[in-house]
Design goal:
Layout lengths: L1 E6 L3 H15 L4 E6 L3 H4 L16 H9 L4 E5 L11 E6 L7 E5 L8 E3 L3 H10 L4 E3 L5 H9 L5 E5 H7 L5 E3 L14 E6 L2 H7 L5 H17 L7 E6 L2 E7 L6 E7 L3 H26 L4
Parallel strand pairs: 1-2, 1-3, 6-7, 6-8
Antiparallel strand pairs: 3-10, 4-10, 5-8, 5-9, 11-12, 12-13
Helix pairs in contact: 8-9
Length: 294
């Protein structure tokens, strides 16, 4: 069997896809990489919520699978939206790397004032931690973000630690604690999405990591109940069944949070419903302030 694997063309996406290809090669499976350009790759000068929000890095790859151009696609799982097209399945979830955020800084951490990030979650968590910090929009690949910091546009930038590790990048900075800076749901996880072909799904499922799939499924169940998309600052992290989830106001001044042990998807959904009921005002306010109708 030879599998056509779709990927974005960024350096990180190619490294992640190469990881999947290597694992399949060790199982005697031939692969061919096909680079697909997504909306998130072409519109780099504006915040994500202004170019379609959830799924901007995924839709073109979904379409390529459904049209038969490729057999499957490799994604950072945090980019995959809750609502998925019919006929697509998450065939494999690889063992999770670090889920934490990493703050890289070009000056002593106590002197950091301007921080680059395009994430509403990271902005809100930063402002909660230190209201004197000024978050500014920053998009582009990892190299571009680091270059902008090095040129003096930002004192610091926030990146996913897993991405830095996969790219082999070592840069001054520190990991942000996941209990205070709760990550984006599924952060640090690579997923393989495929069409509904039993033989293809059987091959890809050999890459699956059971505990990671369980943890990220709990996170996604909570995410589905909360909604909010990329507009609302939401952090959700589950490790071996221990779940932390929070919804923040855009300015970081208000937070609704739950921390508990979860063993089933249904339990995660129930926790999500309860948190949504408490956080509905924060979710509505985020949509209103960003000027986007639900």
């Amino acid at each position: 069997m030879s599998i056509k694997i779709g990927t974005r063309g960024s350096k990180l996406a190619l490294v992640q896809t190469a990881t999947v290809c290597t694992k399949l090669a060790s199982r005697g499976i031939e692969t061919k990489q096909v680079i697909i350009t997504t909306a998130g790759d072409t519109a780099t000068g504006v915040p994500l919520h202004e170019i379609g929000g959830e799924g901007v890095f995924v839709r073109a790859l979904d379409d390529a699978i459904l049209s038969g151009q490729i057999d499957c696609a490799v994604h950072s799982m945090k980019d995959i939206p809750a609502l998925r097209p019919s006929g697509l399945f998450t065939a494999a979830v690889l063992k999770r790397d670090s889920a934490a955020d990493f703050i890289a800084h070009s000056c002593p951490i106590e002197k950091v004032l301007v921080v680059g990030t395009s994430s509403t979650r990271r902005r809100a968590q930063l402002l909660r931690h230190d209201p004197d910090i000024t978050p500014r929009d920053l998009r582009g690949n990892v190299d571009t973000r680091i270059r902008k910091m090095s040129s003096g546009e930002f004192d610091a930038i926030i990146l996913a630690e897993a991405g830095l590790t996969r790219l082999g990048i070592r840069i001054p900075g520190e990991r942000l604690p996941t209990d205070k800076f709760v990550p984006s749901p599924n952060q640090g996880t690579i997923a393989v999405v495929s069409r509904a072909d039993p033989s293809l799904m059987e091959v890809l499922s050999s890459l699956d990591h059971t505990q990671t799939r369980t943890d990220v499924a709990i996170e996604r169940a909570m995410m589905e109940q909360l909604g909010g998309g990329c507009y609302t600052p939401i952090g959700i992290y589950c490790r071996a069944g221990h779940l932390i989830a929070e919804v923040l106001s855009l300015d970081g001044k208000c937070t609704e949070r739950v921390e508990t042990d979860v063993r089933t998807i249904e339990q995660a959904r129930e926790e999500g419903k309860k948190l949504r009921a408490r956080a509905q005002g924060l979710i509505d306010d985020a949509y209103a302030k960003l000027g986007t109708a639900k």
